[in-house]
Design a protein that fits this description.
By secondary structure, this protein is mainly alpha-helical. It is built from two helices and two strands. Strand 1 and strand 2 form a beta hairpin.
Amino acid sequence: IAEIKREGFTAFEEAEANARLIAAAPTLYDTLIDARSSLMTARGASQVSISVEAKRAIVAIDKALAKAEGR
């Protein structure tokens, strides 16, 4: 049986990795929603501004969610 190699992976290995990613996608999506909600709650409850890192995380989460939702 011939193996087709692409960038160091066989077609089977790549398909297997893609299947694992697809299977994990709903959990990853829900985790991003929960993380964003937690960051927004912390921002709302805080008497001071949230950190620059937290703001960057919210922006990154929003971009990932938009991509996942096809926006």
